[in-house]
Design brief:
Helices cover about 35% and strands about 25% of the residues. A 5-stranded parallel beta sheet has the order 1-2-3-4-5.
Length: about 120
Amino acid sequence: MKSRIFDIHTHLLPAKPGTAIVSVTSQLDFTPHEGHLYAFGLHPWDVDEAWPEQVERMEALYRHAVHRDQLVMMGEMGLDRLRGADLALQSQALTAQLKMAESIGKIPIIHDVHSMAELLALRRE
């Protein structure tokens, strides 16, 4: 059986389409390249007071976009103690995205920098 290498998280387009899932953030109007697979989410570095509108637009993208078959996972989303908005704001945005990921059947890609205790607490909730 031939082994196949597949990268589930990168921010760069791979040389060969279909060999990686490219995480795209803060680009709600991105245009996918044919044959490539994507994950889209609100990265904790990009969270600000407008996050509810961004998450709402993201949900529309996942549910109604012509290229939604190329959106195979959701993220990168998470918590980052060293960079980005206040952790409480990041947590609100993350919780909303996790609920959306569950409702649309997408696996989340989690970004965690020094916030494992908070992520585990959210998971328990």
